Amino acid sequence: MSEHPSGSDKTGSLEFSPSKLDPRFLSEHFRQNMPVAAQWGYFDHAAVGPLSGPARTALQTFVDQGTRDGDLHWPEWAKGLSGARRAVAAGIGASPSEIAFVANTTEGINLVADGLNWRDGDNLVVPAGEFPSNHYAWRQLSDRGVELRVVPTGAMGEFDPADVAARCDSRTRLIVTSWVGFASGFRVDLDALAQVANDIGCQLFVDAIQGLGVFPLDVSRTPIDYLAADGHKWLLSPEGFGVAYVREEHITRLRPSHLGWNSVVNPFDYQDLTQPLRTDAQRFEGGSHNLLAAQALRASVDLLSSSGWGKDSVALADNVLRITDELVERLRRRGATIHSDRRPRHASGIVSFSFDGHDPVALRKSLIERSVVLSCRAGRLRAALHGYNTVEDLDRLDAALGELL
Hints:
single chain, 405 residues, alpha/beta, four-stranded antiparallel beta sheet, 15% strand
């Protein structure tokens, strides 16, 4: 796989510069690389995103090589892993040394929950309505004398940074939040929450799985301390391979809970068992990597970068918000109640909605029969649109709802 800086790609003879190109062109470029669009109106990226065309090619290449030649291509696969690390780091303004690969978001959450040096009487603050993994791992700390303080949220999952600040005190060690609420679609103002953490003198952890790959984030400007996300949603990669970000100054202070041969400075010296741990985030990658998924993640991140995603680019995010706003207007015309905060600062690609008198589970099943895919969460329908979704996809959904309602 060819390597290039994140935010710059070549397809044919055209060199992409996402911040300067027309959003409609970026959307079409994106769509041409999403095979799912040929058959489905796919609005389920908040559950499991489809694989991108480049990810499929990378997977097929890996499988062919591994089947035909065993491990002879391992050095090439390792380069793909390093390329994925650099691409993700560039996408959020981090150093590759601050990126660790994890099996999933849950592992990234527990990396921090288990690794911090908690003291009896400490507390952490988290909004209500988090995805279970971003609650259970912190609740479990009660056996170490750590109090979990939950911030109530509104009907659309919304909360104010001031509400978080009000529950913090001198023993608050960590503020925890999802970037985007999995059920409501509420997008948190990370800059404002990072300011709260700074004012309190605590750290900030972000479950980024519902925002990474769509919205811009530059961790060199927004001082979050930890981040975790799996690749199988908006990053359009296989399940079971994700990323964790640990700010440089925390890496050697965070206690690794899963040490292995790959955690030390010279992992291929199997005889020397006295080696020190690495001083970068790879110390948290104890064992062998999922090299197959790494190739796919690298390919999809490159596609997203060439379609307007990056730490300084709002092009892809603008496309997502534009098409999602159009969806909301169409749903309202059909009589839907919208349960998501659509204020520009808090809107995302996720929309929760319902129709009075209609069972959301039955509606979802009937929509799938009409080649439209979405989810049910919290007793409501949930649509989650990406930057390659178009008006034609909305037309398909609109026509299906016209039949069913």
